[in-house]
Amino acid sequence: MEWIMIPLNCAIVFGCIYKVVELFVHRQERLLLISKIAELTHVDFKGISLYSSGNKYTALRIGWLLLGVGCGFLLGFCINMLATYGDYAFRADTDFMFRYRDYVGGIVYVASVCICGGIGLLMSYRAERKAEQPEEKVKE
């Protein structure tokens, strides 16, 4: 362990000296930035809104994504319980199942969350496209 202490201490001392020098060197630049920000404080932000850039379906996307992630956790939990703690785990090669039970559970959870989250985003895309299409008027 002693072989790493000398280079590590040198790196720490060099890093601290470098940061102190950097503080003094960039002082003038920071002062210029502060003065520019002080000049721009009179800007009016009343016309800017969250939806001005075309993100009017943000809540829909987040809702479908969270719904998909929740379904993914539920699906992953069910698969994990059936595969590693059910009767199948005790009839199969028990040494293999007990050794890799935690890894299989983690993989199942991540895969389920990603798949169901992707499905949720696809459903959000479909809902957005359906909402953007103009409704056809029915002729009587």
Task: List descriptors.
about 140 residues; mainly alpha
Radius of gyration: 28 Å
Identify the quaternary structure here: single chain
Order of H and E elements: HHHHHH
| Overall morphology | flat
Which parts are unreliable, with pLDDT below 50 for 5 consecutive residues or more? none
Q: Pairing-aware structural class of the strands and helices?
A: mainly alpha
Strand content: under 5%
How would you state the average pLDDT, rounded?
76
Q: Tell me the span between the first and last alpha carbons.
A: 87 Å
Question: Biggest sheet, in brief?
Answer: none
Number of H- or I-type helical stretches: 6
In short:
It contains 6 helices and no strands. It is mainly α and 140 residues long. It starts with a helix and ends in an 8-residue tail after the last helix.
Question: Would you mind describing this structure in some detail?
Answer:
This protein is mainly alpha-helical. The protein has a domain at 65-132. Helix content is 76%, strand content 0%. The protein has six helices and no strands. The chain has helices at residues 2-25, 27-39, 58-84, 87-91, 94-99, 101-132. Helix 3 (58-84) runs antiparallel to helix 6. The protein is flat and about 70 Å long. The mean pLDDT is 76.
